[in-house]
Amino acid sequence: MTTIMELILNNRSIQVLAIFISLDVIFGFLRSIKEHKTNSTIGIDGIIRKTGMMITIVTTIVIDKMVGIDLIGFIPNELKNYLGIGSCGITFLFNSLYVIFEILSIMKNMRRCNIPLPKKLNDYLDKLLQEFTGEIEGE
């Protein structure tokens, strides 16, 4: 019988999420140094948010193990085997959304550190940040 810890440590999507969380923390720290706005409250809020993300992922692993939901069960098994995908549970869904969130945060921090990004990506990121956070208005 597989333990929850083995499920967590052997899950590639969780490993990817951990990498993106680490990159976001690093770029957030670099941004705070560059802007001379090191604030422990913001850092603690970020750590709490990322801890909550990991708790959610662990919880969804337990739910997936207990219930066995397959969100792509409508795709024929022959096609899933050909594409090399098994099942897509709640964990994969939440994990994918969190990875997207982390990528956007990393790109935002890169932009605020003046690390060059492709122009189209930078313009799209500006639009997203203005629409959803209002962070670009002060620049």
Explain what this protein looks like in three dimensions.
The protein has 6 helices and no strands. The chain has 139 residues and is mainly alpha-helical. The chain has one domain (4-132). Helix 3 packs antiparallel against helix 5. The longest helix has 28 residues, at 40-67. It is globular, with a radius of gyration of 18 Å. It starts with a helix and ends in a 7-residue tail after the last helix.
**H/E element sequence:** HHHHHH
Number of domains: 1
Query: Which structural class do you get from the secondary structure elements?
Result: mainly alpha
In angstroms, what is the radius of gyration? 18 Å
Summarize the structure.
By secondary structure, the chain is an all-alpha fold.
List the helices and strands and how they pair.
Elements: H1 4-9, H2 12-34, H3 40-67, H4 77-83, H5 90-112, H6 119-132
Helix pairs in contact: 2-5, 3-5
Q: What distinguishing features does this structure have?
A:
single chain; 139 residues; mainly alpha
